[in-house]
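Task 17 of the worksheet. Students: predict the tertiary structure of the chain below and write it out as structure tokens. Keep your answer in the requested format; marks are given for formatting as well as content.
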Amino acid sequence: MRLYDTTLRDGTQGENINFSVRDKLEITRFLDECGIHYIEGGWPGSNPRDAQFFEQAASLPLKTARLTAFGATRRPKIDPSDDPNLRALLESGTPTVAIFGKSWDLHVERVMENTLEENLAMIHDSVTFLRQQGREVVYDAEHFFDGFRDNPSYAMKTLQAAWNAGADFLVLCDTNGGTLPHQVTEVLLQVKGELCVAEAAPRLGIHTHNDSGLAVANAVAAVREGAVMVHGTVNGYGERCGNADLTSIIPILQVKMGVPVVRDDQLHKLKRLSRFVSETANQVPHHNRPFVGNSAFAHKGGIHVSAIMKEPRAYEHMLPEIVGNARRVLVSDLSGKSNVEYKAKELGVPLGGNGCNTREIVDRIKQLEEQGYQFDVAEGSLKILLQKITEQFEPLFTLESFRVTIEKDRTQPCSAHATIKISVDGKEEITAAEGDGPVSALDNALRKALDKFFPGLDAMHLVDFKVRVIDGTVGTAANVRVLIESRDRDDIWSTVGVSEDIIEASWQALADSFHYKLAKETSADTK
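Model answer:
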């Protein structure tokens, strides 16, 4: 079984997904570290950036992965040696090349305005040429499932052309993402029935898109019917609705189906890989992403929590640690004592020996949530709250005052300016900063003030900011809830603030976020 990652090529076709050459090199290193067998680095014939990537990637000391360059079959009516795209593939210097060809007669005749015979020749000639140059060839049969549905005989001829020319892998592509799992099974059975009759049968692969929400299911269906190469991207990034998500495919194959694809220590890095790619792509991680999402093993109901404290298998389909994730217990107005006790232990807030009753904590949390706080999505604020209730909170800075002003004239957009006064160990600091808005200005001013006492906050970033009016029936007097999500190189956390004033609510969430970060750094330093 071979894992084929196309995050750096197909993944970048997703909306708002862009990687620099340096980004692609760092992701390549991490993919190799995680045991991926093939890394498709890009299309060197399409843009200078990909050509530059392959030039620099040639010196990477990859231990597991084979670097792969992607391109198309030769153009109509020319010799493969004269085709600039095929020459670019060879010049990339990769041991493996992937080329796609048309399997759907609709594309051949109506989109390309080509003949069916010439398309077959393009496939055969291109694979033959690349094999003669000593390259391993992965042939992507584009739109294969749609083509097979409309004209199965011709779709099979395109596969046969690639196979007769010496392709090492024949990859069946659900390019439009509209195929269903049972249809994948039916097609694989027919393909095997026609092609896999000789002793030297072709090795089949699967490449699925997620337009019907079934990319992973379709990939698994193909593996069950004999596919030995699975294409996908980290986090399912890709055009339209994305590609099959390797962060789901890998544990499904290895943990659920018993198909070994990576080492156990590499599987343990899966969540880190997901987070690294999302951070590099400047994308907020999806908390509900299977296996590696923050909510994948999160429990909120008191009955559930009580059960997993006795037997985790009662409400979890696998151990989260296998993929580098962790069990999380959420605390909200639905919580019982079990939730609080478990969560306090998880967050490192001891409850024993301090005279604080767990039931009192539960009641306090429920009172605050009645006012609009939401702690199941703001664990940073929850930890600080638990520390305050149990008299363990030691603030590393104290707000003395702040002032925020907004300026707008006829020709310029709004600008914000914040002045802040804080104290740290009795020493006061006053700073000012500008920002794109009042919260941005406050954030910049607070960072500027804290940096004199706690250097190294550059690694912390605000990645999400949400505002919600809790009760709109009272107009401008309604409470406002602000949720802020922050991250650094290793962690992501959320904080919450509630007030009738949006700036006050924002400050509460912002201050908690910095308190959480500074406490974490202080704790790490003492260790």
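Marker's comment: The CA atoms of residues 38 and 66 lie 5 Å apart. DSSP finds 18 helices and 16 strands in the chain.
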